[in-house]
Amino acid sequence: MEKIKCLIIGGGPAGYTAAIYASRAGLNPVLYEGMEPGGQLTTTTIVENFPGFPEGVDANQLMGDMRAQAVRFGADIRRGTITSVDFSGKPLRLVVDDGNEIEAQAVIIATGAAARYLGLPSERKFRGMGVSACATCDGFFYRKKVVAVVGGGDTACEEATYLANICSKVYMIVRRDVFRASVAMQERVKNTPNIEILWNCNTREVLGDESGVTGARLERKDGKVFDIDIDGFFLAIGHHPNSDVFKAFIDTDENGYIITQGKSTKTNVEGVFAAGDVQDPSFRQAITAAASGCKAALEVEKFLMSN
Ligand code: NDP
Fold first, then answer.
1. Which residue has the CA at smallest separation from atom 14 of ligand 1?
2. Which of 175, 178, 182 best tests ligand 1's pocket when mutated (most atoms within 8 Å of CB)?
3. Lower CB density within 10 Å: C or N end of the chain?
4. Buried b (16+ CB within 10 A) or exposed e, 142-155
5. Exactly one of 137, 157, 201, 294 is catalytic; which is it?
6. pLDDT confidence band for 206 (50 / 70 / 90)
7. pTM
Protein backbone atom coordinates (compact mmCIF):
# COMPACT_ATOMS: atom_id res chain seq x y z
CA MET A 1 0.00 0.00 0.00
CA GLU A 2 1.54 3.30 -1.13
CA LYS A 3 0.84 6.35 1.04
CA ILE A 4 0.40 9.63 -0.84
CA LYS A 5 -0.33 13.06 0.57
CA CYS A 6 -1.92 14.58 -2.55
CA LEU A 7 -3.08 12.42 -5.44
CA ILE A 8 -4.11 14.09 -8.69
CA ILE A 9 -6.05 12.10 -11.27
CA GLY A 10 -5.94 13.33 -14.85
CA GLY A 11 -3.34 14.68 -17.24
CA GLY A 12 -5.05 17.69 -18.77
CA PRO A 13 -4.74 21.42 -18.04
CA ALA A 14 -6.57 21.04 -14.69
CA GLY A 15 -4.43 18.15 -13.47
CA TYR A 16 -1.09 19.60 -14.57
CA THR A 17 -1.89 23.01 -13.12
CA ALA A 18 -2.93 21.40 -9.83
CA ALA A 19 0.40 19.51 -9.89
CA ILE A 20 2.40 22.73 -10.46
CA TYR A 21 0.75 24.44 -7.48
CA ALA A 22 0.78 21.37 -5.23
CA SER A 23 4.45 20.61 -5.88
CA ARG A 24 5.46 24.22 -5.29
CA ALA A 25 3.55 24.04 -1.99
CA GLY A 26 5.61 21.03 -0.93
CA LEU A 27 2.74 18.54 -1.08
CA ASN A 28 4.75 15.98 -3.11
CA PRO A 29 1.85 15.32 -5.49
CA VAL A 30 1.56 12.14 -7.51
CA LEU A 31 -0.38 12.53 -10.75
CA TYR A 32 -1.83 9.68 -12.80
CA GLU A 33 -2.35 10.94 -16.29
CA GLY A 34 -4.65 8.22 -17.61
CA MET A 35 -5.08 6.95 -21.14
CA GLU A 36 -4.79 10.29 -22.91
CA PRO A 37 -1.90 12.32 -21.48
CA GLY A 38 -2.47 15.97 -22.34
CA GLY A 39 -6.24 15.52 -22.33
CA GLN A 40 -8.79 16.65 -24.89
CA LEU A 41 -6.62 19.50 -26.09
CA THR A 42 -4.30 17.06 -27.81
CA THR A 43 -7.09 16.24 -30.28
CA THR A 44 -6.77 19.74 -31.69
CA THR A 45 -3.80 21.38 -33.41
CA ILE A 46 -3.04 25.02 -32.72
CA VAL A 47 -4.46 26.74 -29.62
CA GLU A 48 -4.96 30.42 -30.32
CA ASN A 49 -6.99 31.48 -27.30
CA PHE A 50 -4.70 30.48 -24.42
CA PRO A 51 -3.33 33.76 -23.04
CA GLY A 52 0.38 34.36 -23.34
CA PHE A 53 0.85 33.02 -26.85
CA PRO A 54 0.24 35.87 -29.30
CA GLU A 55 1.05 33.64 -32.28
CA GLY A 56 -0.85 30.63 -30.93
CA VAL A 57 0.72 27.47 -29.57
CA ASP A 58 0.73 23.84 -30.66
CA ALA A 59 -1.66 22.00 -28.32
CA ASN A 60 0.74 19.12 -27.67
CA GLN A 61 3.55 21.57 -26.98
CA LEU A 62 1.35 23.49 -24.51
CA MET A 63 0.42 20.36 -22.63
CA GLY A 64 3.97 19.02 -22.73
CA ASP A 65 5.20 22.31 -21.27
CA MET A 66 2.59 22.28 -18.48
CA ARG A 67 3.66 18.74 -17.65
CA ALA A 68 7.36 19.67 -17.70
CA GLN A 69 6.65 22.63 -15.43
CA ALA A 70 5.02 20.32 -12.88
CA VAL A 71 7.91 17.84 -13.11
CA ARG A 72 10.41 20.69 -12.61
CA PHE A 73 8.91 21.38 -9.19
CA GLY A 74 8.98 17.71 -8.25
CA ALA A 75 5.56 16.33 -9.23
CA ASP A 76 5.66 12.56 -9.71
CA ILE A 77 3.77 12.02 -12.97
CA ARG A 78 2.86 8.48 -13.90
CA ARG A 79 1.05 6.65 -16.66
CA GLY A 80 -1.97 4.81 -15.34
CA THR A 81 -5.69 4.91 -14.78
CA ILE A 82 -7.59 4.63 -11.51
CA THR A 83 -9.82 1.57 -11.73
CA SER A 84 -11.60 1.68 -8.37
CA VAL A 85 -11.93 3.88 -5.31
CA ASP A 86 -13.13 3.55 -1.75
CA PHE A 87 -13.92 6.96 -0.31
CA SER A 88 -15.98 5.58 2.59
CA GLY A 89 -13.37 6.43 5.21
CA LYS A 90 -9.98 8.00 5.86
CA PRO A 91 -7.47 7.62 4.30
CA LEU A 92 -8.99 7.63 0.83
CA ARG A 93 -8.25 4.39 -1.00
CA LEU A 94 -7.67 3.93 -4.71
CA VAL A 95 -6.46 1.18 -7.05
CA VAL A 96 -4.48 1.82 -10.23
CA ASP A 97 -4.74 -0.34 -13.38
CA ASP A 98 -1.19 -1.64 -12.78
CA GLY A 99 -2.41 -3.08 -9.45
CA ASN A 100 -0.84 -0.39 -7.26
CA GLU A 101 -2.95 0.31 -4.16
CA ILE A 102 -2.90 3.84 -2.78
CA GLU A 103 -3.88 5.50 0.46
CA ALA A 104 -4.25 9.25 -0.09
CA GLN A 105 -4.90 12.08 2.33
CA ALA A 106 -6.36 14.28 -0.42
CA VAL A 107 -7.47 13.61 -3.98
CA ILE A 108 -8.02 15.99 -6.89
CA ILE A 109 -10.21 14.53 -9.61
CA ALA A 110 -9.31 16.17 -12.93
CA THR A 111 -10.32 13.42 -15.33
CA GLY A 112 -12.01 15.70 -17.86
CA ALA A 113 -14.81 14.96 -20.25
CA ALA A 114 -14.86 13.37 -23.65
CA ALA A 115 -16.76 14.86 -26.58
CA ARG A 116 -19.24 12.47 -28.12
CA TYR A 117 -18.69 11.53 -31.76
CA LEU A 118 -21.05 9.82 -34.20
CA GLY A 119 -18.74 6.83 -34.55
CA LEU A 120 -18.32 6.95 -38.33
CA PRO A 121 -14.97 5.72 -39.73
CA SER A 122 -14.81 8.78 -42.03
CA GLU A 123 -15.33 11.07 -39.04
CA ARG A 124 -12.36 9.46 -37.31
CA LYS A 125 -10.25 9.67 -40.48
CA PHE A 126 -10.69 13.45 -40.75
CA ARG A 127 -10.41 14.29 -37.05
CA GLY A 128 -8.14 17.32 -36.85
CA MET A 129 -8.45 17.75 -40.63
CA GLY A 130 -11.84 19.42 -40.67
CA VAL A 131 -13.66 17.34 -38.05
CA SER A 132 -13.75 19.02 -34.66
CA ALA A 133 -15.78 18.89 -31.47
CA CYS A 134 -14.93 22.43 -30.37
CA ALA A 135 -16.04 25.48 -32.31
CA THR A 136 -14.38 27.88 -29.85
CA CYS A 137 -11.06 26.09 -30.41
CA ASP A 138 -11.14 25.59 -34.16
CA GLY A 139 -13.77 27.93 -35.60
CA PHE A 140 -11.25 30.61 -36.42
CA PHE A 141 -9.63 28.34 -39.04
CA TYR A 142 -12.87 28.44 -41.07
CA ARG A 143 -13.09 32.18 -41.66
CA LYS A 144 -15.42 32.86 -44.60
CA LYS A 145 -15.81 29.12 -45.22
CA VAL A 146 -18.82 26.79 -45.05
CA VAL A 147 -19.20 24.47 -42.08
CA ALA A 148 -21.76 22.12 -40.54
CA VAL A 149 -22.67 21.62 -36.90
CA VAL A 150 -24.26 18.34 -35.83
CA GLY A 151 -26.73 18.44 -32.95
CA GLY A 152 -29.80 20.28 -31.78
CA GLY A 153 -28.99 21.08 -28.15
CA ASP A 154 -27.81 24.29 -26.49
CA THR A 155 -24.19 23.54 -27.36
CA ALA A 156 -25.00 23.03 -31.05
CA CYS A 157 -27.02 26.27 -31.17
CA GLU A 158 -24.33 28.18 -29.32
CA GLU A 159 -21.59 26.82 -31.58
CA ALA A 160 -23.61 27.45 -34.73
CA THR A 161 -24.20 31.10 -33.83
CA TYR A 162 -20.56 31.49 -32.85
CA LEU A 163 -19.45 30.00 -36.18
CA ALA A 164 -21.99 32.10 -38.11
CA ASN A 165 -20.00 35.18 -37.06
CA ILE A 166 -16.85 33.74 -38.58
CA CYS A 167 -17.98 31.57 -41.47
CA SER A 168 -19.89 32.45 -44.63
CA LYS A 169 -22.49 29.75 -43.98
CA VAL A 170 -23.35 27.24 -41.28
CA TYR A 171 -25.52 24.17 -41.76
CA MET A 172 -27.07 22.62 -38.68
CA ILE A 173 -27.66 18.89 -39.05
CA VAL A 174 -30.50 18.00 -36.66
CA ARG A 175 -31.70 14.42 -36.41
CA ARG A 176 -35.29 15.24 -35.39
CA ASP A 177 -37.70 17.95 -36.53
CA VAL A 178 -37.25 19.88 -33.27
CA PHE A 179 -34.38 21.32 -31.29
CA ARG A 180 -33.57 20.10 -27.81
CA ALA A 181 -32.11 23.54 -27.06
CA SER A 182 -33.77 26.21 -24.91
CA VAL A 183 -36.22 28.52 -26.66
CA ALA A 184 -33.86 31.49 -26.34
CA MET A 185 -31.06 29.61 -28.12
CA GLN A 186 -33.46 28.39 -30.80
CA GLU A 187 -34.57 31.96 -31.45
CA ARG A 188 -30.99 33.10 -31.76
CA VAL A 189 -30.34 30.43 -34.40
CA LYS A 190 -33.52 31.18 -36.31
CA ASN A 191 -32.64 34.89 -36.38
CA THR A 192 -29.19 34.26 -37.83
CA PRO A 193 -29.54 34.50 -41.62
CA ASN A 194 -26.47 32.47 -42.58
CA ILE A 195 -27.54 29.38 -40.59
CA GLU A 196 -29.51 26.79 -42.56
CA ILE A 197 -31.15 24.04 -40.52
CA LEU A 198 -31.32 20.59 -42.11
CA TRP A 199 -34.09 18.91 -40.08
CA ASN A 200 -34.55 15.15 -39.82
CA CYS A 201 -31.08 14.48 -41.15
CA ASN A 202 -28.38 12.04 -40.09
CA THR A 203 -24.82 11.98 -41.35
CA ARG A 204 -23.93 8.87 -43.31
CA GLU A 205 -20.37 9.86 -44.15
CA VAL A 206 -17.92 12.73 -43.87
CA LEU A 207 -16.45 13.34 -47.33
CA GLY A 208 -12.93 14.54 -47.99
CA ASP A 209 -9.60 14.15 -49.66
CA GLU A 210 -5.95 14.59 -48.69
CA SER A 211 -6.62 18.29 -47.97
CA GLY A 212 -9.27 17.43 -45.38
CA VAL A 213 -13.06 17.64 -45.22
CA THR A 214 -14.86 18.65 -48.42
CA GLY A 215 -18.45 17.63 -47.66
CA ALA A 216 -20.90 15.38 -45.87
CA ARG A 217 -23.37 12.80 -47.13
CA LEU A 218 -26.67 13.06 -45.29
CA GLU A 219 -29.77 10.92 -45.15
CA ARG A 220 -33.13 12.52 -44.44
CA LYS A 221 -35.82 10.61 -42.55
CA ASP A 222 -37.84 10.21 -45.79
CA GLY A 223 -34.93 8.24 -47.28
CA LYS A 224 -33.48 10.99 -49.45
CA VAL A 225 -29.66 10.88 -49.55
CA PHE A 226 -27.81 14.05 -50.53
CA ASP A 227 -24.40 15.72 -50.18
CA ILE A 228 -23.49 19.15 -48.84
CA ASP A 229 -20.24 20.95 -49.61
CA ILE A 230 -18.47 21.99 -46.42
CA ASP A 231 -14.94 22.72 -45.19
CA GLY A 232 -15.52 21.91 -41.52
CA PHE A 233 -17.68 19.38 -39.65
CA PHE A 234 -18.34 20.23 -36.00
CA LEU A 235 -19.81 17.77 -33.52
CA ALA A 236 -22.00 19.16 -30.76
CA ILE A 237 -23.88 16.09 -29.61
CA GLY A 238 -22.85 16.24 -25.98
CA HIS A 239 -19.95 15.35 -23.73
CA HIS A 240 -19.39 12.50 -21.33
CA PRO A 241 -17.67 13.51 -18.09
CA ASN A 242 -15.16 10.89 -16.93
CA SER A 243 -16.70 10.44 -13.50
CA ASP A 244 -17.99 6.86 -13.66
CA VAL A 245 -15.35 5.32 -11.39
CA PHE A 246 -16.16 7.81 -8.59
CA LYS A 247 -19.95 7.73 -8.77
CA ALA A 248 -20.51 5.34 -5.87
CA PHE A 249 -19.10 8.01 -3.52
CA ILE A 250 -19.09 11.35 -5.32
CA ASP A 251 -22.29 13.26 -6.12
CA THR A 252 -22.83 14.07 -9.79
CA ASP A 253 -25.61 15.85 -11.67
CA GLU A 254 -27.99 14.05 -14.03
CA ASN A 255 -25.38 14.23 -16.83
CA GLY A 256 -22.58 12.81 -14.71
CA TYR A 257 -20.75 16.08 -13.95
CA ILE A 258 -19.27 16.12 -10.45
CA ILE A 259 -21.03 18.60 -8.21
CA THR A 260 -18.70 21.01 -6.43
CA GLN A 261 -19.71 23.32 -3.60
CA GLY A 262 -20.31 26.93 -4.62
CA LYS A 263 -17.12 28.64 -5.80
CA SER A 264 -15.01 25.89 -4.25
CA THR A 265 -13.69 22.68 -5.81
CA LYS A 266 -14.85 20.63 -2.80
CA THR A 267 -17.01 17.58 -3.50
CA ASN A 268 -19.40 15.92 -1.06
CA VAL A 269 -16.51 13.80 0.32
CA GLU A 270 -14.10 15.58 2.63
CA GLY A 271 -10.60 15.61 1.14
CA VAL A 272 -11.81 14.96 -2.42
CA PHE A 273 -11.76 17.91 -4.80
CA ALA A 274 -12.74 18.15 -8.47
CA ALA A 275 -11.32 20.45 -11.15
CA GLY A 276 -11.67 21.00 -14.87
CA ASP A 277 -14.21 19.64 -17.31
CA VAL A 278 -15.31 16.72 -15.11
CA GLN A 279 -17.15 19.31 -12.98
CA ASP A 280 -17.83 21.95 -15.64
CA PRO A 281 -20.65 21.49 -18.15
CA SER A 282 -20.58 25.15 -19.17
CA PHE A 283 -17.18 26.58 -20.09
CA ARG A 284 -14.96 23.60 -21.00
CA GLN A 285 -11.92 25.70 -21.89
CA ALA A 286 -8.27 24.87 -21.20
CA ILE A 287 -7.88 28.17 -19.37
CA THR A 288 -10.91 27.60 -17.12
CA ALA A 289 -9.76 24.03 -16.44
CA ALA A 290 -6.28 25.27 -15.52
CA ALA A 291 -7.81 27.89 -13.23
CA SER A 292 -9.89 25.34 -11.36
CA GLY A 293 -6.84 23.05 -11.07
CA CYS A 294 -5.08 25.92 -9.32
CA LYS A 295 -8.04 26.42 -6.99
CA ALA A 296 -8.15 22.71 -6.14
CA ALA A 297 -4.45 22.61 -5.24
CA LEU A 298 -4.80 25.68 -3.00
CA GLU A 299 -7.80 24.10 -1.30
CA VAL A 300 -5.91 20.83 -0.78
CA GLU A 301 -3.07 22.76 0.81
CA LYS A 302 -5.50 24.41 3.21
CA PHE A 303 -7.25 21.10 3.89
CA LEU A 304 -4.01 19.26 4.68
CA MET A 305 -2.86 22.02 7.03
CA SER A 306 -6.04 21.76 9.09
CA ASN A 307 -6.16 17.92 9.15
P1 NDP B 1 -27.65 17.82 -25.18
O2 NDP B 1 -27.65 16.43 -24.68
O3 NDP B 1 -28.56 18.81 -24.56
O4 NDP B 1 -28.00 17.82 -26.75
C5 NDP B 1 -27.39 16.92 -27.60
C6 NDP B 1 -27.96 17.14 -28.99
O7 NDP B 1 -27.26 16.27 -29.88
C8 NDP B 1 -29.44 16.80 -29.11
O9 NDP B 1 -30.04 17.64 -30.05
C10 NDP B 1 -29.42 15.37 -29.62
O11 NDP B 1 -30.52 15.02 -30.41
C12 NDP B 1 -28.21 15.41 -30.52
N13 NDP B 1 -27.61 14.10 -30.71
C14 NDP B 1 -27.22 13.22 -29.73
N15 NDP B 1 -26.68 12.12 -30.28
C16 NDP B 1 -26.78 12.30 -31.63
C17 NDP B 1 -26.42 11.52 -32.73
N18 NDP B 1 -25.85 10.32 -32.57
N19 NDP B 1 -26.65 12.00 -33.97
C20 NDP B 1 -27.18 13.21 -34.16
N21 NDP B 1 -27.57 14.02 -33.14
C22 NDP B 1 -27.35 13.56 -31.89
O23 NDP B 1 -26.10 18.29 -25.12
P24 NDP B 1 -25.48 19.77 -25.11
O25 NDP B 1 -24.03 19.58 -25.15
O26 NDP B 1 -26.11 20.61 -26.15
O27 NDP B 1 -25.88 20.34 -23.69
C28 NDP B 1 -25.50 19.67 -22.48
C29 NDP B 1 -26.06 20.44 -21.29
O30 NDP B 1 -25.38 21.69 -21.17
C31 NDP B 1 -27.55 20.76 -21.45
O32 NDP B 1 -28.15 20.69 -20.21
C33 NDP B 1 -27.54 22.18 -21.96
O34 NDP B 1 -28.73 22.88 -21.66
C35 NDP B 1 -26.32 22.76 -21.25
N36 NDP B 1 -25.75 23.88 -21.99
C37 NDP B 1 -26.19 25.14 -21.72
C38 NDP B 1 -25.71 26.22 -22.42
C39 NDP B 1 -26.19 27.55 -22.09
O40 NDP B 1 -27.09 27.67 -21.31
N41 NDP B 1 -25.63 28.60 -22.66
C42 NDP B 1 -24.70 26.07 -23.47
C43 NDP B 1 -24.34 24.71 -23.72
C44 NDP B 1 -24.85 23.67 -22.99
P45 NDP B 1 -31.95 14.65 -29.72
O46 NDP B 1 -32.51 15.96 -29.25
O47 NDP B 1 -32.69 14.04 -30.85
O48 NDP B 1 -31.65 13.69 -28.62
1. 237
2. 175
3. N
4. beebbbbbbbbbbb
5. 137
6. very high
7. 0.78
